Amino acid sequence: MVEKEESRGKKLQKELALPQKSAWERLEGDTREKVFAFAEGYKTFLSRAKTEREAVRAALEAARGRGFVSLADLPPGRGLNPGSRFYLEWRGKVLLMGIMGTADLAEGIRLVGAHVDAPRLDLKPMPLYEKDGLAMFKTHYYGGIKKYQWTALPLALHGVIMLRDGRRVEVVIGEDSADPIFTVSDLLPHLAKEQMKKNMEEALSGDDLNLVVGSIPYPGEDDLKDKIRLAILQLLNERYGLVEEDLITAELELVPAGPARDLGFDRSLVGGYGQDDRVCGYTALQAILDLEVPRHTALVLLVDKEEIGSTGNTGAHSRLLEYAITELASRVGTTSIVHVGRIMANSQAISADVTAGVDPTYENVFDMHNASRLGYGVVLNKYSGSRGKYDANDASAEFMGRLRDIFNQNQVIWQSGEMGKVDAGGGGTIAKFLAYFGLDVADCGPALLSMHAPLEIASKVDIYMAYRAYKAFLAS
Fold it and tell me: How much of the chain, in percent, has pLDDT values that exceed 90?
């Protein structure tokens, strides 16, 4: 049979137009099997790393297991050669991992930065009270949440308590099937007539997010006040040795209980809490673990506090990157301001963060010509921000072109995208804080559905392509 000759128009379309095709249809060889295998490790990490501390701890264990050593243990001017693997940890909430390259540090580094904090409910400093036959905890939400999504949901308590005697106690309650869970109660629809008249933002206030924690009174003494509250304090004292004052010096976080799961009949998606931005934290971690000796020194930085503006001494808005580069430079013989500045000015970075994927139910908030789709590859964003690019890092054409070339040369399936329609809203990343030091920076990460919800959705093929993208960039 004679094959029909391809029309001139179809030839031109292939040559000139950007293909819009699912990444699943573009996979070659055994890549599909690699995609699914990679997702298994990711789900384990996501289920284990429910807080920024837990994410850093899991990453640090993996790094140590692959030969990374603490930079703080190496004397200045000694111990770093091409291929040397090192890390720096800050306050249990930030981790920098690196591999020395063959090029001089002054030629710049390759950095992938992600954040490992996620929206949640934190306990207030004095959380425990009793009312109407129940013991309750007061919470203060962290990050941008839809408050109604956090009611009538099984929650687990994770965190750290500093006791009066100086001991540090770690808490995880609600993840094991034998553990109790906690929840924020909701108003029944039978009595919610007035509540249902309110808009979604006003229907529930931050001070309505109160946690049910118990109901049995302290026995035998009728003249005691708040006996249920006392009984809960007694339980906490018996189990953890704490008194109420210790709650003031604690970091206790409420997160959705339970593991990450496959989602969909075909198991092509991952459903789980905290994928913004632990999906990028994990893929960046695996990229540097699997990296051979690079030309430029390669760094992966996992930071805290992005969801509240990257503030504090564990957020990207601090000077921790400058400190890290200075520490690194001191190990190769110089700490001069000029030299450190030159390193950063010649460096390039990916701000590894997620973006909004098109939700078929809510297409109206997306510019469909510039929207990201789940299953179409990792998303390369020139800028983020909101409305008139406010609070954005706007990557240069030169750097975007370089990233495109790196991805295309390394079989990374990628797509372009924006958060949504120009005036619909927007969001920021750590990109602008990395760029503050003079680095070329662009945003790159998977698209999600239900971002900032207790359960977020990502495509396994996009997750794998994020890993490939970060690894190719670090090796460049």
Answer: 81
Q: What is the pTM of this model?
A: 0.95
- How far apart are the C-alpha atoms of 442 and 450, rounded to whole Å? 23
Q: Provide the 3-class DSSP secondary structure of residue 397.
A: helix
Write down which residue in 230, 256, 282 finishes a domain. 256
How many C-alpha atoms does 375 have within 13 Å on its Cβ side? 13
Type and span of the H or E element at 385: strand 385-386
Residues 238 and 188 in one domain: yes
Give, for 263, the enclosing helix (H) or strand (E).
strand 261-263
Q: Is the dihedral of CA 346, 351, 352, 358 positive or negative?
A: negative
Is the Cβ–Cβ distance between 355 and 372 less than 8 Å? yes
Q: Of 261, 272, 358, 302, give the one whose Cα is nearest residue 90.
A: 302
Q: State the residue range of the domain holding 438.
A: 22-118+273-475
Q: Which helix (H) or strand (E) holds 168?
A: strand 168-173
What is the tens place of the pLDDT at every residue in 406-428? 999 999 999 998 888 888 888 88
Residue 235 token pair? 């339980």
H/E segment holding residue 343 = helix 337-345
